[in-house]
Amino acid sequence: MKLTTLISTILFTLLSIFVFEQSVNADTAIVDGDGVHVRSGPGSEYDSIGNVNNGQSYPLLQQQTDWVEIDYNGESGWVSQEYINIERVEQEYAEIDSESVDTVYNNTHLRSGPSVNDAIIAYVDQGTTLAIVRSEEEWLEVEYEESTAFVHRDFVTDTTKIPNNLGFKNKTIVIDAGHGGRDVGAIGTSNTYEKDFTFLTAQELASELTYLGADVHMTRSHDEFISLNSRASYANFVDTDAFISIHYNSVADLPSVTGIETFYYNDQMKPLAESVQQGMIRSSEDEDRGTSFGDFQILRLSLQPSLLLELGFISNEEQEALLSTTGYQKQLVSGILEGLSTHFNQ
Length: 346
Description:
Helix content: 25-40%
Number of strands: 20
Shape: globular
Strand order of the largest sheet: 16-15-17-20-18-19
Strand content: 25-35%
Radius of gyration: 20 Å
Order of helices and strands: HEEEEEEEEEEEEEEEHEHEEHEHEHH
Distance between the termini: 18 Å
CATH architecture of the largest domain: 3-Layer(aba) Sandwich
CATH class of the largest domain: Alpha Beta
Number of domains: 3
Protein backbone atom coordinates (compact mmCIF):
# COMPACT_ATOMS: atom_id res chain seq x y z
CA MET A 1 0.00 0.00 0.00
CA LYS A 2 1.36 3.41 -0.93
CA LEU A 3 2.11 5.80 1.94
CA THR A 4 -0.38 8.41 0.65
CA THR A 5 -3.11 5.77 0.51
CA LEU A 6 -2.31 4.64 4.04
CA ILE A 7 -2.48 8.23 5.32
CA SER A 8 -5.81 8.78 3.57
CA THR A 9 -7.19 5.59 5.11
CA ILE A 10 -6.18 6.68 8.61
CA LEU A 11 -7.59 10.18 8.12
CA PHE A 12 -10.86 8.83 6.75
CA THR A 13 -11.23 6.48 9.71
CA LEU A 14 -10.55 9.26 12.22
CA LEU A 15 -12.94 11.66 10.50
CA SER A 16 -15.67 9.03 10.30
CA ILE A 17 -15.36 8.40 14.03
CA PHE A 18 -15.29 12.03 15.16
CA VAL A 19 -17.65 13.55 12.60
CA PHE A 20 -20.37 10.97 13.05
CA GLU A 21 -19.92 10.51 16.79
CA GLN A 22 -20.62 14.12 17.67
CA SER A 23 -23.68 14.31 15.39
CA VAL A 24 -25.62 11.36 16.81
CA ASN A 25 -28.96 12.22 18.40
CA ALA A 26 -31.15 9.95 20.49
CA ASP A 27 -34.25 10.52 18.34
CA THR A 28 -34.77 11.31 14.68
CA ALA A 29 -37.74 13.02 13.04
CA ILE A 30 -38.63 11.49 9.66
CA VAL A 31 -40.86 13.56 7.38
CA ASP A 32 -44.06 11.94 6.09
CA GLY A 33 -45.28 14.23 3.31
CA ASP A 34 -44.02 16.60 0.64
CA GLY A 35 -43.76 20.38 0.89
CA VAL A 36 -44.30 20.34 4.63
CA HIS A 37 -43.79 23.76 6.24
CA VAL A 38 -41.05 24.26 8.80
CA ARG A 39 -42.07 27.13 11.09
CA SER A 40 -40.29 29.44 13.49
CA GLY A 41 -42.46 28.29 16.41
CA PRO A 42 -44.89 25.55 17.51
CA GLY A 43 -48.02 26.63 15.64
CA SER A 44 -49.39 27.42 12.19
CA GLU A 45 -49.49 31.11 13.09
CA TYR A 46 -45.68 31.24 13.07
CA ASP A 47 -43.77 32.16 9.90
CA SER A 48 -42.68 29.42 7.51
CA ILE A 49 -38.88 29.30 7.32
CA GLY A 50 -38.65 26.46 4.79
CA ASN A 51 -40.09 23.20 3.53
CA VAL A 52 -39.20 19.54 3.99
CA ASN A 53 -40.13 16.51 1.93
CA ASN A 54 -41.07 12.88 2.37
CA GLY A 55 -38.30 10.66 3.74
CA GLN A 56 -36.01 13.47 4.89
CA SER A 57 -34.73 13.02 8.43
CA TYR A 58 -33.68 15.58 11.02
CA PRO A 59 -32.41 15.44 14.61
CA LEU A 60 -35.36 15.74 17.00
CA LEU A 61 -34.86 18.46 19.61
CA GLN A 62 -38.15 18.28 21.51
CA GLN A 63 -41.90 17.61 21.29
CA GLN A 64 -44.53 20.11 22.38
CA THR A 65 -48.24 19.18 22.15
CA ASP A 66 -48.90 18.65 18.42
CA TRP A 67 -45.57 20.03 17.22
CA VAL A 68 -41.99 18.78 17.13
CA GLU A 69 -38.83 20.87 17.10
CA ILE A 70 -36.08 19.75 14.73
CA ASP A 71 -32.55 20.81 13.95
CA TYR A 72 -33.29 22.40 10.57
CA ASN A 73 -29.93 23.00 8.88
CA GLY A 74 -28.33 24.16 12.13
CA GLU A 75 -31.31 26.23 13.26
CA SER A 76 -34.44 25.56 15.31
CA GLY A 77 -37.52 24.66 13.24
CA TRP A 78 -41.00 23.39 14.11
CA VAL A 79 -43.09 20.87 12.16
CA SER A 80 -46.61 19.62 12.82
CA GLN A 81 -46.60 16.19 14.48
CA GLU A 82 -49.08 15.12 11.78
CA TYR A 83 -46.26 14.97 9.23
CA ILE A 84 -43.56 13.41 11.40
CA ASN A 85 -42.64 9.85 12.31
CA ILE A 86 -40.23 9.61 15.22
CA GLU A 87 -37.45 7.03 15.23
CA ARG A 88 -36.30 6.51 18.79
CA VAL A 89 -32.89 5.13 19.67
CA GLU A 90 -31.70 4.18 23.12
CA GLN A 91 -28.36 5.86 23.72
CA GLU A 92 -25.68 5.39 26.34
CA TYR A 93 -23.48 8.32 27.27
CA ALA A 94 -19.79 8.01 28.05
CA GLU A 95 -18.14 9.81 30.91
CA ILE A 96 -16.92 13.30 30.03
CA ASP A 97 -13.29 13.79 30.98
CA SER A 98 -13.08 17.55 30.58
CA GLU A 99 -14.38 20.33 32.82
CA SER A 100 -16.30 21.94 29.98
CA VAL A 101 -18.19 21.21 26.77
CA ASP A 102 -18.86 23.12 23.56
CA THR A 103 -22.27 23.43 21.90
CA VAL A 104 -22.52 21.97 18.39
CA TYR A 105 -25.71 23.73 17.23
CA ASN A 106 -26.89 27.31 16.97
CA ASN A 107 -29.74 28.28 19.32
CA THR A 108 -28.96 25.46 21.73
CA HIS A 109 -31.52 25.39 24.54
CA LEU A 110 -30.48 25.91 28.14
CA ARG A 111 -33.24 24.81 30.51
CA SER A 112 -34.14 25.34 34.14
CA GLY A 113 -34.08 21.59 34.82
CA PRO A 114 -33.03 18.24 33.33
CA SER A 115 -36.12 17.68 31.17
CA VAL A 116 -37.65 18.94 27.93
CA ASN A 117 -40.64 19.89 30.08
CA ASP A 118 -38.54 22.39 32.02
CA ALA A 119 -38.54 25.99 30.87
CA ILE A 120 -36.04 27.27 28.32
CA ILE A 121 -34.12 30.04 30.04
CA ALA A 122 -31.63 30.89 27.28
CA TYR A 123 -30.40 30.12 23.77
CA VAL A 124 -26.67 29.95 23.06
CA ASP A 125 -24.70 29.89 19.83
CA GLN A 126 -22.75 27.05 18.28
CA GLY A 127 -19.27 26.79 19.79
CA THR A 128 -20.23 28.24 23.18
CA THR A 129 -18.08 26.78 25.96
CA LEU A 130 -20.02 25.74 29.06
CA ALA A 131 -18.38 24.77 32.37
CA ILE A 132 -19.78 21.52 33.79
CA VAL A 133 -21.22 21.46 37.31
CA ARG A 134 -22.45 17.86 37.25
CA SER A 135 -24.05 15.28 34.97
CA GLU A 136 -27.50 13.74 35.34
CA GLU A 137 -28.02 10.89 32.86
CA GLU A 138 -28.47 12.52 29.43
CA TRP A 139 -28.33 16.05 30.86
CA LEU A 140 -25.50 18.26 32.06
CA GLU A 141 -25.83 21.00 34.63
CA VAL A 142 -23.60 23.85 33.48
CA GLU A 143 -22.64 27.30 34.71
CA TYR A 144 -24.64 30.08 33.09
CA GLU A 145 -24.28 33.74 34.02
CA GLU A 146 -24.72 33.98 37.83
CA SER A 147 -26.49 30.63 38.17
CA THR A 148 -26.69 27.24 36.45
CA ALA A 149 -28.74 25.70 33.65
CA PHE A 150 -29.20 22.31 32.02
CA VAL A 151 -28.22 21.28 28.50
CA HIS A 152 -28.89 17.96 26.76
CA ARG A 153 -25.84 15.82 26.07
CA ASP A 154 -26.79 15.49 22.38
CA PHE A 155 -26.20 19.20 21.84
CA VAL A 156 -22.65 19.43 23.19
CA THR A 157 -19.29 17.80 22.63
CA ASP A 158 -16.45 16.95 24.98
CA THR A 159 -13.68 19.40 24.05
CA THR A 160 -10.97 16.92 25.08
CA LYS A 161 -12.08 14.51 22.32
CA ILE A 162 -11.60 16.92 19.44
CA PRO A 163 -8.71 15.53 17.36
CA ASN A 164 -5.80 17.95 16.98
CA ASN A 165 -3.89 16.09 14.29
CA LEU A 166 -6.23 16.59 11.33
CA GLY A 167 -4.84 19.96 10.31
CA PHE A 168 -7.93 22.14 10.82
CA LYS A 169 -6.97 24.05 13.95
CA ASN A 170 -6.29 27.73 13.20
CA LYS A 171 -7.25 27.25 9.54
CA THR A 172 -9.63 29.80 8.01
CA ILE A 173 -12.16 28.25 5.64
CA VAL A 174 -14.87 30.04 3.68
CA ILE A 175 -17.85 27.94 2.61
CA ASP A 176 -19.97 29.18 -0.27
CA ALA A 177 -23.50 27.75 -0.52
CA GLY A 178 -24.15 28.25 -4.21
CA HIS A 179 -27.08 30.35 -5.44
CA GLY A 180 -29.72 31.70 -3.02
CA GLY A 181 -32.69 34.02 -2.92
CA ARG A 182 -34.09 34.75 -6.38
CA ASP A 183 -31.30 32.63 -7.89
CA VAL A 184 -32.62 29.11 -7.23
CA GLY A 185 -29.98 27.35 -9.32
CA ALA A 186 -30.78 23.97 -10.85
CA ILE A 187 -34.22 22.42 -10.37
CA GLY A 188 -34.66 18.80 -9.29
CA THR A 189 -37.10 16.13 -10.42
CA SER A 190 -39.56 16.97 -7.64
CA ASN A 191 -39.17 20.74 -8.15
CA THR A 192 -36.53 21.04 -5.44
CA TYR A 193 -34.00 23.85 -5.72
CA GLU A 194 -30.24 23.60 -5.89
CA LYS A 195 -29.95 26.58 -3.52
CA ASP A 196 -31.56 24.53 -0.73
CA PHE A 197 -29.28 21.52 -1.21
CA THR A 198 -26.16 23.69 -1.27
CA PHE A 199 -27.20 25.42 1.94
CA LEU A 200 -27.91 22.07 3.62
CA THR A 201 -24.42 20.79 2.76
CA ALA A 202 -22.75 24.08 3.66
CA GLN A 203 -24.35 24.10 7.11
CA GLU A 204 -23.27 20.53 7.79
CA LEU A 205 -19.73 21.22 6.59
CA ALA A 206 -19.51 24.40 8.67
CA SER A 207 -20.67 22.54 11.77
CA GLU A 208 -18.06 19.80 11.39
CA LEU A 209 -15.21 22.16 10.57
CA THR A 210 -16.05 24.33 13.59
CA TYR A 211 -16.05 21.21 15.74
CA LEU A 212 -12.59 20.31 14.39
CA GLY A 213 -11.16 23.71 15.31
CA ALA A 214 -11.34 25.67 12.05
CA ASP A 215 -12.31 29.33 11.79
CA VAL A 216 -15.33 29.00 9.50
CA HIS A 217 -17.05 31.73 7.47
CA MET A 218 -20.16 31.42 5.29
CA THR A 219 -20.82 33.58 2.24
CA ARG A 220 -24.53 33.43 3.08
CA SER A 221 -26.21 32.50 6.36
CA HIS A 222 -29.74 32.18 4.99
CA ASP A 223 -31.71 32.15 1.74
CA GLU A 224 -30.52 35.37 0.10
CA PHE A 225 -29.07 36.45 -3.23
CA ILE A 226 -25.39 37.40 -3.13
CA SER A 227 -23.41 38.27 -6.26
CA LEU A 228 -20.45 36.17 -7.35
CA ASN A 229 -18.19 39.20 -7.00
CA SER A 230 -19.25 39.65 -3.38
CA ARG A 231 -18.70 36.00 -2.55
CA ALA A 232 -15.16 35.93 -3.96
CA SER A 233 -14.31 39.32 -2.45
CA TYR A 234 -15.37 38.09 0.96
CA ALA A 235 -13.10 35.04 0.72
CA ASN A 236 -10.21 37.25 -0.37
CA PHE A 237 -10.86 39.70 2.46
CA VAL A 238 -10.69 37.09 5.24
CA ASP A 239 -7.51 35.59 3.72
CA THR A 240 -8.92 32.07 3.72
CA ASP A 241 -6.83 28.91 3.66
CA ALA A 242 -9.50 27.27 1.50
CA PHE A 243 -12.58 28.56 -0.31
CA ILE A 244 -15.14 25.83 -1.06
CA SER A 245 -18.06 26.66 -3.37
CA ILE A 246 -20.80 24.02 -3.17
CA HIS A 247 -23.12 23.20 -6.08
CA TYR A 248 -25.34 20.48 -7.52
CA ASN A 249 -25.94 19.47 -11.14
CA SER A 250 -29.10 18.90 -13.15
CA VAL A 251 -29.61 17.58 -16.70
CA ALA A 252 -33.32 17.01 -17.21
CA ASP A 253 -32.81 15.22 -20.56
CA LEU A 254 -30.46 12.67 -18.95
CA PRO A 255 -32.26 11.58 -15.76
CA SER A 256 -29.97 8.61 -15.14
CA VAL A 257 -26.75 10.64 -15.03
CA THR A 258 -25.03 10.71 -11.64
CA GLY A 259 -21.65 11.46 -10.13
CA ILE A 260 -19.45 13.99 -8.35
CA GLU A 261 -16.85 16.30 -9.87
CA THR A 262 -14.46 18.98 -8.64
CA PHE A 263 -13.28 22.09 -10.51
CA TYR A 264 -10.23 24.30 -10.02
CA TYR A 265 -8.97 27.36 -11.92
CA ASN A 266 -5.31 27.57 -10.96
CA ASP A 267 -3.14 24.53 -11.75
CA GLN A 268 -1.58 24.88 -8.29
CA MET A 269 -4.97 23.87 -6.89
CA LYS A 270 -5.11 20.59 -8.80
CA PRO A 271 -3.60 18.53 -5.93
CA LEU A 272 -6.17 20.00 -3.52
CA ALA A 273 -8.94 19.23 -6.00
CA GLU A 274 -7.76 15.66 -6.37
CA SER A 275 -7.55 15.15 -2.60
CA VAL A 276 -11.09 16.43 -2.03
CA GLN A 277 -12.49 14.51 -5.02
CA GLN A 278 -10.93 11.26 -3.84
CA GLY A 279 -12.26 11.82 -0.33
CA MET A 280 -15.81 12.41 -1.56
CA ILE A 281 -15.82 9.38 -3.85
CA ARG A 282 -14.39 7.26 -1.08
CA SER A 283 -17.06 8.30 1.41
CA SER A 284 -20.08 8.44 -0.92
CA GLU A 285 -19.22 5.62 -3.34
CA ASP A 286 -20.82 7.71 -6.09
CA GLU A 287 -19.56 7.79 -9.68
CA ASP A 288 -16.23 9.58 -10.04
CA ARG A 289 -16.50 12.32 -12.69
CA GLY A 290 -12.99 13.48 -11.88
CA THR A 291 -11.33 16.87 -11.50
CA SER A 292 -11.19 19.50 -14.23
CA PHE A 293 -10.15 23.04 -15.01
CA GLY A 294 -13.21 25.23 -14.52
CA ASP A 295 -13.43 28.71 -16.03
CA PHE A 296 -16.01 29.84 -13.48
CA GLN A 297 -16.25 33.45 -12.36
CA ILE A 298 -16.26 32.51 -8.69
CA LEU A 299 -12.92 30.70 -9.17
CA ARG A 300 -11.37 33.33 -11.46
CA LEU A 301 -12.00 36.07 -8.91
CA SER A 302 -10.62 34.15 -5.95
CA LEU A 303 -7.05 34.95 -4.92
CA GLN A 304 -6.98 32.10 -2.40
CA PRO A 305 -6.98 28.29 -2.73
CA SER A 306 -10.44 27.61 -4.11
CA LEU A 307 -12.57 24.77 -5.46
CA LEU A 308 -16.05 24.41 -6.92
CA LEU A 309 -17.71 21.12 -6.03
CA GLU A 310 -20.57 19.58 -8.01
CA LEU A 311 -21.88 17.04 -5.51
CA GLY A 312 -24.50 15.17 -7.52
CA PHE A 313 -27.41 15.39 -9.94
CA ILE A 314 -30.78 16.45 -8.57
CA SER A 315 -32.21 15.60 -12.01
CA ASN A 316 -31.65 11.96 -11.03
CA GLU A 317 -34.70 10.98 -8.96
CA GLU A 318 -32.87 8.39 -6.88
CA GLN A 319 -29.94 10.68 -6.15
CA GLU A 320 -32.21 13.63 -5.39
CA ALA A 321 -33.92 11.55 -2.69
CA LEU A 322 -30.56 10.38 -1.33
CA LEU A 323 -29.21 13.93 -1.17
CA SER A 324 -32.18 14.90 1.00
CA THR A 325 -31.11 12.53 3.78
CA THR A 326 -28.97 13.58 6.73
CA GLY A 327 -26.92 10.38 6.54
CA TYR A 328 -25.79 10.92 2.96
CA GLN A 329 -25.05 14.59 3.56
CA LYS A 330 -22.76 13.53 6.38
CA GLN A 331 -21.03 11.08 4.03
CA LEU A 332 -20.35 13.85 1.53
CA VAL A 333 -19.06 16.17 4.24
CA SER A 334 -16.84 13.43 5.64
CA GLY A 335 -15.23 13.08 2.21
CA ILE A 336 -14.65 16.82 1.89
CA LEU A 337 -13.05 16.85 5.32
CA GLU A 338 -10.81 13.94 4.42
CA GLY A 339 -9.57 15.73 1.32
CA LEU A 340 -8.96 19.02 3.12
CA SER A 341 -7.19 17.24 5.97
CA THR A 342 -4.90 15.42 3.54
CA HIS A 343 -4.07 18.74 1.87
CA PHE A 344 -3.40 20.61 5.12
CA ASN A 345 -1.16 17.83 6.44
CA GLN A 346 1.09 17.65 3.38
